[in-house]
Amino acid sequence: VAPGASAGKDGRMTSSNPSTATVRRVVEWPDTDASGHHHNSLIMRLFEDAERALLDAAGLAGTYFPTAPRVRQEIDFTGKLYFRQPVTTTITLERVGRTSLTWHFEVWGEAFGDVPRRRAASGRVICAHVPAGTDRSAPWPDAVRAALTPREDAG
User: Fold this and answer.
1) C-alpha to C-alpha distance for 97 and 99, rounded to whole angstroms
2) Which residue of 17, 63, 100, 136 has the smallest Cβ count within 10 Å?
């Protein structure tokens, strides 16, 4: 949730700031591979942790995830993450379209030993709204639109 924002009793964000979440964790042994640093799949798991935190705060996790498949993912890998290194992941809702959402995210490896703080990855993920029992996208429900604040509103 954005700084200074909170989810009200009705699950709606109480700030005009874009819907944002930040999660912190540590790189675990299974997150690494034979190269000695993180496996590329870790980045999407970190994104999903932050996405879940944001949607939990908005009161939408139970209705969003079953109906929001990813339709596009793009990741720029820019640094390595190491076993036991603290990591910070931030996502921001960038855009709400008629039937899709666009998330922007950054993953930062925090200072660790002689490794300075640096961005490990950034990217975008687009999810479509596909209601249960259908195979086609449909407009987002009003409750989703009301609970999330995009960086820009696409209408």
Assistant:
1) 6
2) 136
Which residues sit opposite 5 in a β-bridge?
none
Residue 31, CA distances (Å) to 40, 44, 125 in order: 9, 11, 21
* Residue 4: how many other CB atoms lie within 10 Å: 9
Query: Is the pLDDT reported for residue 6 higher than 50?
Result: no
Q: How many CB atoms lie within 10 A of CB 12?
A: 16
User: Which has more pLDDT, 117 or 34?
Assistant: 117
**What gap in Å lies between CA 107 and CA 93, rounded to an integer?**
15
Q: Which two tokens stand for residue 95?
A: 């855009």
Amino acid at residue number 58: A
Distance CA 115, CA 117 (A): 7
* Burial (CB count <10 Å: 0-12, 13-18, 19+), residue 74: exposed
> Cα(first)–Cα(last) distance of the chain, in Å?
22
Spatial distance between the Cα atoms of 146 and 13, rounded to a whole number of angstroms: 8
